[in-house]
Amino acid sequence: MPESKKIPVAQASKDYARIRLTGSKPRKRSHVNAEIVIGCVMLGVIALMIVFAPLLTSYDPTHQSLREAMLGSSPAHLLGTDQYGRDIWARLLYGGRIDLFVAIMAVFTPLVIGTILGAVAGYFDGVVPTVIMRLADLVSSFPFYVLVIVLVFVLGNGGTSIFIAISAVSWVPYTRISRGETLILRDREFIASCKASGFSDGWVLFRHVIPNIASQGIVYAMSDIVVNLGIIVTLSYFGLGIVPPTPDWGQMMNDGQQFLAAGVYSLTVIPTIVIILISLALSFIGDGLANVLKVRR
After folding, report:
1. What whole-number distance in Å separates Cα of residue 49 and Cα of residue 187?
2. Mean pLDDT along residues 208-231
3. Given 86, 118, 192, 288, which residue has the most CB atoms within 10 angstroms?
C-alpha cells in the first residue's frame, strides 16, 4: 500500500480510539469572533431602542412645555427635560433615527459607487480608468471636512443635503481600496480561465471581481460610519445640519452647553455617551471583520 494511503488510516484510528475512550468526537474549531459578537450586541441594542422609540416613550420629541422646563430625572421623564420642556429621552431616541440613518446611508452609497468605480479602474486599461482616478485625485485634494461644509452650505440645511455632500466626497477611499485589490486579483488564474472560456469582461467583473474585493470596503465602512456620524453631529452643533425643531444629537449638545456652568450635564453628556457607545460598537465590528478576513487569507 502506498505511503500516502497510510496517513489517513492512522489519523482515523486515532479519532476512533478517542471516541471509544471519551465518548465524544473531535471538536471543530470555533470561528465565532468575540469582537464581532460584542459589537453587534451593542449596536443591535441601540438600534432596536431607536427603531422602537414609540414603544419606549409616549412623548413627542418636538412638544414644548415651558412649565416643565429643566426638570430632573423622574418616572415621568426618565432623563429630565430641556430648557423648552421637551423630554430628553424622547429626543435622544428620535434623534438617533435621523442621525444613524443618514450616517449609514451616506456610507452605503459611496461604498457601492466607489467599489464599482475602483473595480473598473483596476480591471481595465485606457481612458476611463484614468479619468476615474484623476477625478478621485481632484476630490481628495480638498480637505474632507471643508468640502462637506461647503457643499452643505450650498445645498442648504437638512438630512438630504448632508447625505448628498458626504456621498459626493467619501466615495474616493472606496475607489482606491477596490482598485488596489482589483489590480492584484485580475492576474489570478481563475480570472484568466474565465476570459479564456469566452465570458465577457462585464460578467467577470460583476460575477467574480467585485464579490471578491467588496470585503475590504465593508471593513473600512465600519469606521466610516463613525466619521459620518461625527460630521452630522458637528454640522448640527454649529447650526448647519438637521433643521430644528427636528430632534438631533448635535442640537441637543449645543442646547446643553450653556447649562454646563450651572452643573446641568445631562443635555450634553448623554448624547455624547451614546455616540461613544456606537463608535465603540462599530470599532469592535470592524476589528473583528478585519481579523476574520486576515485568518481566511
Report:
1. 47
2. 91
3. 118
List of domains in the chain: 81-296 (1.10.3720.10)
Quick one: angle between helices 159-185 and 144-155, nearest 10?
140
Cell of 63: 412638544
Summarize pLDDT for 57-106 with one digit per residue, the tens: 999 999 998 898 988 888 989 999 998 999 999 999 999 998 999 999 99
Q: To which residue does cell 449596536 refer? A: 43
pLDDT at 23 over 60: no
Phi, psi at residue 25, to the nearest 5°? -85, 160
What pLDDT, on the 0 to 100 scale, is given for residue 45? 95
Is the confidence at residue 296, as pLDDT, over 70? no
Largest CA distance in the chain: 93
